[in-house]
Every structure is written in structure tokens, then in C-alpha cells.
Amino acid sequence: MHYFRHFIAPALALLASASWLFAITPPEGFTALFNGSDLSGWHGDNPHHSNKAKDRAQSLKMQQAEFLKQWSIQEGALYNDGHGPYATTDKDYGDFELMLEYKTVAKADSGIYLRGNPQVQIWDHIEAGGKWKHGADKGSGGLWNNAKGAAGKDPLVCADRPFGEWNQVHIRMIGSRVWVRLNEQLVVDGAHMRNYWSKGNTPIPASGPIHLQTHGGPIHWRNIFIREIGSDEANLLLSELDTEGFESIFNGKDFTGWQGSLDQYEIADGAITCLKGGNIFTAQKYSDFVFKLEFRLPPGGNNGLAIRYPGHGNPAYSGMCELQVLDNTAPQYADLDPRQYHGSVYGKTAAARGYLRAVGEWNYQVVRVQGTTIQVELNGTPIVDTDVSTITEFMSPKFKADIPEDGHLGFAGHGAGVAFRHLRVAFIQP
What we know:
- The chain has 430 residues and is mainly beta.
- The protein folds into 2 domains: 2-229, Exo-inulinase, domain 1 (Jelly Rolls, Sandwich), CATH 2.60.120.560; 245-427, Jelly Rolls.
- It is 11% helix and 36% strand.
- It is built from 5 helices and 26 strands.
- The chain has helices at 2-16, 47-50, 56-70, 231-239, 315-318; strands at residues 31-32, 42-44, 71-74, 77-80, 87-89, 96-104, 109-114, 117-123, 167-174, 177-182, 185-192, 211-213, 219-228, 247-248, 258-260, 265-268, 271-274, 278-286, 289-296, 302-309, 321-326, 362-370, 373-378, 381-387, 407-413, 419-427.
- Strands 1, 3, 4, 6, 9, 10, 11 and 13 form an 8-stranded antiparallel beta sheet that branches. Strands 14, 16, 17, 19, 22, 23, 24 and 26 form an 8-stranded antiparallel beta sheet that branches. A 5-stranded antiparallel beta sheet has the order 2-5-12-7-8.
- A hairpin with a 2-residue loop joins strand 23 and strand 24 (381-387).
- The two termini are 28 Å apart.
């Protein structure tokens, strides 16, 4: 979060300079999504129409013709008259930073769709605009489709500029987490964006296009720049969230504080790597806690996180559970039970899939265990939220219904090559 604050100041200062306004030259590390002269890199798509169409290809074809009529270039800015399909990037994006400027009119209602998902809200925030009953008095920049009362739904401050002036927007998205700055003020602080299309039942996709919404009023867009965020940077930024109370449980050099089949693991370059198999676990026991870690999978990698492990037996059956650590893409795992894929409460609750980084890259995971509940966030996206006490259907009769109140934290190796590093734990106080 500190990075976001420090980075944006010089970038926005550059945007505000007179020479900058007429130059489509992106800040360092960014690329221009709009060249200032034509619609290259964009096409027309209103996903509310095309996602419901019986013939999606035909729907997009018709929308493209309308897009070319309703969108135009005015004095180096991308302009829409309030009608037609949304301006949509040809390219899909995963984790990114997006910078742009917009200028709209009274009673307008627009937005920025991230990975094809509605939306960072843009609208008329004054009372005469007629949208105060919907929360417009709180200003633009909020995640409009988040549930009422959820983080990010309402902007932290109203930062809109008067009509006729350009507004500066800076968005960072990692996983489903979104940060928004409007006119240099933080209005959304790392909130999870709700998947509108699944009504919040599944996370938003790991990648998708950016849409500039047209919805009832003329709007201008300019200085549209994007920077894709790699896995190492994403992990670093995620690691800076909610650091209070966390302590390292691995010193990066030896197995101090650990026990079990230590000869089946090695330490190199600050990481614990499984050599063959076996269970290792902390000497300390934990009850309610948050566990943050990074892990790296080799092709076909298979391991697990032992939760409230008693120190003996198979962690999947003898403790509270085993959280699967698995290369979901490996051919040998193509036909597993859904409760066996990465992040799943093994044999009990299936995790959402599609959020692992490429094999060989470091992933960032947060596990929250409180009472009988388990939440797992992978690379910034929640993939599990379950109460194991309510589970009645198990993959195997070996699973027991009783849940220990505490136990060790560890790794359950099922093969070679899976590595772990940057292990931190915080107790959840009653």
C-alpha cells in the first residue's frame, strides 16, 4: 500500500502538466491503451448483452458496427455520446495498474469494468443528479456491485471534481483486491471486488478485458495507460497488507522450531523444499490463527498444509484438515475429485480453481483458521470460505467429524520439489 501512495504522486503530477496532456507518452513501465488518434486496440462489447446472447459472435459483430458509430476521437480524447456498447480492450489483463482521466456531464452514469466485471463507479455526485438514493452523494470510485456494507462498496471520501474538469483515476488490481485513487485521494483500499456475473458465488476471473462503460451521458476519456504486475511484485505488495501481529516461524537457515521428518526436506535460498515426502510441523501448537506463506510448485507438485495436526498420523484425517497444495495443471490430476485440487480442504470442501500462478512461479497464500471456519486467499483472491463443522459429505469414510481445538502447523509432503518460504503466523485473539 505504501508503494501505491508513493508511486502515484509523481505520475499524477506528470498527468497534470500542460505538456503532458497532449502527448500520448506513458509513464515509465506503462503502455498506452489509447493512442489519441483512432480506436486501435479497442472493440465494442456490452457484456450484459453479449453474455446473454444465443449467438455471442453475432452479437459482438453487431455491437462493433454500433461501436464505430457511437465512439469517436475529439481533440485527442476518446469520446462517447452516452449510447452504444462499451469500449473494450482487445487484450485481457491479470494483475495491473491502470491510469486514466475522464470528464463527464451532469446526470451521467458510467464506470470502469475490471477483467470484464462491473465496476469502478463514475457518476454525478451532486443532489441534482438524482442518484443520492443510490449512494452517489458519497462520490465516484467505489466498487458499485459489491454488497451493501462490504468494503469498497462506498468510496472512503468524495473526491469528484466539478463537471467540465478532468478527473484522474489510478487503479491497482491484484487478484480480486482493488485499490482506487481518484484525484490523488484513496477511495478504495484493497477491497475484494465481487463477481457480478456469479452474484458473488465465485471469485472474479483471473484475467479479462477492461471496459469503459457508456451509460446515459456523454463522457471523454484520455491518457489511458496500463502496467502489468508480475508475480514477484504482486507477492511483495500482498505481503504488506495487514502485517500487525505476525511473527516468522521459519528463519530461512535451519529447522529451529520444527520437527517431524526433517530429513525429507532441505533448506536452500531461504526456502524449505520437500525432497521426497513425509510430514514436518511446528513445535508450537496453534488454535485460531492467520498463516501467510509463499509456495512454488514443480510440474506435478503435491503437498499440503497440515492444520491443527496432532503430530502423528495422516494430517488429512488425524488433524483438523489438510489444505491441498497441488499443481492443478498436471495431466495426472485431470480427473480428481474437485475436493482434491489446490487450496481445497482435502476431501471436504472444493476450492475455486484458476488462480494459481504458472508452474515454477511463487504463489502467495493466506489461510485464516478460526473456530471451525477456514478461509483461503490465493494470490489476492478468496478461493475457500467454509465451516468444516457443517460438512456432511466426505470423499472418504476415513474423515472424522470431530475437530481439534488446537494443533501443530506443518507440511504434508507427497512427492519432491514443492518449496515454501516467508512463513508468518499471527494468533487470532479471542
